[in-house]
């Protein structure tokens, strides 16, 4: 007695191979594509230095949560900031400015002050920060 195999029927299309191809294409384009815009030049961000003593000398600009200002402990208006800083720069052209802003202060209150100080000739601006408590 001779056993014969039945004739193979038509193969069903399998979708597994298609899923593999799509997965490989997805991974390829994720690796090759850019996820964010990069600058056309090298940008090295600054490194925060915590745990070190504050540099001595200079003036301290305090910014309250509501945007009120004080320069070396004397309250002043936004319009009075530039003349007061210019007077300090006349005494010491290498003046260092420490900016001590409240953590709730808006950036729109702080950045124009730093830019104004830079326009007046301040070359060294130190931002005062509080380090996170250790574990």
How would you characterize this protein structure?
The chain is an alpha/beta fold and 135 residues long. The protein is 33% helix and 16% strand. The protein has three helices and five strands, in the order H-E-E-E-H-E-H-E. It has a five-stranded mixed beta sheet, covered by helices on one side. It starts with 15 loop residues before the first helix and ends in an 8-residue tail after the last strand.
Q: What kind of sheet is the major sheet?
A: 5 strands, mixed
Distance between the termini: 83 Å
Q: How many strands?
A: 5
Query: Which structural class is indicated by helix and strand composition?
Result: alpha/beta
- Total DSSP helices: 3
Please give the oligomerization state of what you see.
single chain
Instruction: Estimate what percentage of residues fall within beta strands.
Output: 15-25%
- N-to-C series of helices and strands: HEEEHEHE
Low-confidence stretches: none
Query: Could you give the order of strands across the largest sheet?
Result: 3-2-1-4-5
Radius of gyration from the alpha-carbon trace, in angstroms: 32 Å
Amount of helix: 25-40%
Shape: rod-shaped
Instruction: Look at the structure and give the mean pLDDT.
Output: 80
């Amino acid at each position: 007695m001779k056993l014969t195999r039945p004739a193979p029927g038509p193969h069903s299309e399998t979708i597994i191979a298609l899923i593999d191809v799509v997965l490989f294409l997805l991974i390829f384009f994720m690796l090759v594509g850019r996820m964010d815009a990069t600058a056309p030049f090298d940008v090295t961000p600054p490194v925060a230095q915590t745990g070190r003593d504050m540099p001595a000398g200079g003036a301290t600009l305090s910014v309250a949560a509501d945007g009120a200002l004080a320069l070396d402990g004397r309250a002043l208006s936004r319009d009075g900031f530039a003349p007061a800083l210019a007077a300090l720069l006349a005494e010491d052209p290498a003046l260092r400015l420490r900016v001590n802003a409240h953590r709730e202060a808006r950036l729109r209150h702080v950045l124009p002050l730093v830019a104004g100080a830079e326009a007046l000739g301040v070359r060294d601006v130190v931002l005062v920060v509080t380090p996170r408590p250790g574990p």
